[in-house]
Specification:
Elements: H1 2-15, E1 19-20, E2 23-24, H2 28-39, H3 54-81, H4 83-91, E3 98-99, E4 102-103, E5 111-118, E6 128-134, E7 140-145, H5 150-165, E8 170-172, H6 182-190
Parallel strand pairs: 5-8
Antiparallel strand pairs: 1-2, 3-4, 5-6, 6-7
Length: 194
Amino acid sequence: MVANALWGWLNRWKKANWQRRGKPIWDAEIWQDIATRVERLTVKVRHMNAHVSKSWANEEHRNNEQVEKAAKVKVSQVIHNCETCAAIKQAKRVKPLWYGGQWLKYRYGKAWQIDYITLPQTRQGKHYVLTMMEATTGWLETYPVPHATAWNTILGLEKQVLWRHGTPERIESDNGTHFKNGLINTWAREHGIE
């Protein structure tokens, strides 16, 4: 029932040039991608048939097993390709600033730890994620980029940290070239960041 409804919507939206009642479909490119994939997909519907022969019941059972296996593979692929999932998984490995049983002297939002993680390249060309973790709570912000550069570091900090949480007093990193160079140092000095 759900598959039939979805296929009906996708066909109607496609015929209407990805609009409904003259308004564009929200995130149309995602729905277009789904429509392209579903057109070529063999869908096996799972339901219960009562009072059927043993051979028919066995065939239904085999079909249901195939559907479950295919669904597990698809879900695994989606999770593997998800930038946010990868950043969260990586961030769980990072330890916040905790020394001697207490947090450092910073209040919320005043100290951040940053690093880049590498991901499989996305369709949008993003290959790295700038991870920015607030030091007192472990709150994570992420910013996917095509290259780990000083300029992308500044953009990520401005869009994800400064704009949302205010200007921090301190930013800690592994001192890689995308974190410690003239461009970053000038930007940090202009913003009063240690």
